[in-house]
């Protein structure tokens, strides 16, 4: 490239010596070519991270290893821990890092945080109404809650106290609606059968977390010193039985599993009979996920229940509906349909952490009057918490204990 530039410069000068402009252009072309070539050379020689071999290394015999500069050690802050294998339990979280009521309901609580800019009664009333609706408390429940707040009395309070007073009165109403939802600390060991195992059956639609909830409850029961057997009653989904079996291996308990596509009723029957013979305390039964609005699938649950009763007359002792807290008001329609089909005894709410629809929990509890036996506040077994109405309401509205 520089040779061409020099030739072009000579030609321009010799062919037309009087043309200074063409000579200057040729000169600039020459200088630009040299600068470009110099830049390429410097870039290649100084490129960071490039492995360079000296002349001696290149001339080394083939039977001798070539020495290559060792890469710099990765700083500790950049090192990534290896993920646990599938058949290994995830490391337990420390108490400081486990989800709490306050952190789990943070997205819902944002709806009830209005700051101190609103002091007029109509503004506070509208803000409370909107927060209840967007958190999926439901229209009817929202109207009832708003009507129970004594707005005239709050209007006589100093402006800075009006929002806290309105929230406190709303908390009283919500706590009353959740009275029947609070579960006893002794569950599920309460009312243990004298003869045979206690059979707990988990039902729900696809993807709500039934299998994981079973594993968490099994872990809890084992930590209390009880023997547990898992029944892989979901024979429809190919991976469901394998998933439950992996959990059983992690926990060191037995799992009864049928072939994919097998009759789920026979799996449940065999599991109950096996537990009875081995004098196992609890049988936790999975079921195939099904849409609550498809009658033929709901009828299959009825068959499962009848077969379990043939294995053990009082089985199942408890039928728990697992609900995904992210689905909001849709939880209510699911609960009504399942309750009509198999007569529910309690609820388990999963994936509450990060849900912005915490108000729907209140709506379900108020409508059905069923206990919420466990809430999923995270992914680990330790994040499977007993429902307590007071901490729940405080975390929902952002109010203090007093």
Q: Which structural class should the secondary elements be placed in?
A: alpha/beta
The total of helices stands at 16
SSE order, one letter for each helix or strand? HHHHHHHHHEHEHEHEHEHEHEEH
Q: Tell me what portion of residues adopts beta-strand conformation.
A: 5-15%
Mean of pLDDT: 80
What Rg do the Cα atoms give?
35 Å
Question: Share of helix among residues?
Answer: 40-55%
Characterize the overall form: flat
Low-confidence stretches: 47-98
Largest sheet: number of strands, sense, barrel closure: 8 strands, mixed
Total count of strands: 8
Describe the structure concisely:
This protein has 402 residues and is an alpha/beta fold. It has helices at residues 2-15, 20-46, 55-58, 101-104, 106-109, 121-134, 139-148, 151-155, 159-177, 210-223, 238-251, 264-278, 295-311, 330-342, 359-368, 389-397; strands at residues 198-203, 228-232, 254-257, 282-285, 318-324, 346-350, 372-376, 384-385. Strands 3-2-4-1-5-6-7-8 form an eight-stranded mixed beta sheet, sandwiched between helices.
């Amino acid at each position: 490239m520089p040779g061409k530039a020099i030739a072009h410069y000579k030609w321009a000068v010799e062919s037309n010596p009087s043309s200074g402009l063409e000579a200057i252009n040729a000169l600039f072309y020459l200088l630009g070519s040299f600068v470009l070539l110099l830049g390429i050379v410097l870039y290649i020689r100084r490129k960071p991270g490039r492995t360079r071999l000296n002349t001696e290394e290149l001339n080394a015999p083939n039977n001798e290893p070539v020495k290559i500069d060792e890469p710099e050690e990765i700083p500790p802050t950049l090192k990534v821990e290896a993920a646990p294998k599938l058949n290994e339990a995830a490391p337990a979280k420390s108490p400081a890092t486990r989800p709490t009521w306050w952190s789990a309901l943070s997205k819902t609580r944002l709806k009830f945080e209005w700051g101190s800019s609103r002091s007029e009664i109509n503004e506070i009333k509208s803000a409370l109404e909107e927060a209840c609706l967007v958190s999926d408390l439901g229209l009817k429940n929202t109207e009832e809650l708003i009507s129970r707040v004594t707005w005239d009395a709050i209007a006589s309070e100093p402006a800075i106290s009006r929002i806290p007073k309105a929230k406190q009165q709303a908390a009283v109403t919500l706590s009353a609606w959740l009275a029947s939802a609070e579960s006893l600390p002794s569950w599920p060991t309460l009312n243990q059968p004298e003869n045979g195992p206690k059979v707990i059956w988990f039902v729900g639609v696809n993807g709500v977390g039934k299998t994981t909830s079973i594993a968490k409850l099994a872990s809890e029961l084992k930590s209390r010193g009880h023997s547990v057997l898992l029944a892989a009653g979901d024979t429809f989904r190919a991976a469901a039985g394998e998933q439950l079996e992996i959990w059983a291996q992690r926990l060191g308990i037995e799992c009864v599993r049928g072939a994919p596509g097998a009759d789920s009723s026979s799996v449940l029957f065999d599991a109950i009979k096996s537990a009875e013979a081995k004098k196992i305390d609890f049988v936790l039964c999975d079921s195939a996920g099904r849409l609550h609005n498809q009658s033929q699938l709901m009828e299959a649950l009825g068959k499962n229940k009848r077969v379990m009763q043939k294995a053990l007359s009082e089985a199942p002792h408890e039928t728990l509906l697992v609900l995904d807290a992210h689905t909001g008001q849709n939880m209510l329609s699911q609960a009504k349909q399942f309750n009509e089909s198999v007569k529910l005894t309690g609820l388990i709410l999963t994936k509450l952490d990060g849900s912005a629809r915490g108000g729907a929990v209140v709506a379900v509890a108020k409508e059905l009057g069923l206990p919420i036996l466990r809430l999923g506040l995270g992914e680990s077994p330790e994040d499977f918490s007993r429902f307590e109405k007071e901490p729940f309401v405080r975390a929902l509205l952002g109010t203090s204990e007093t």
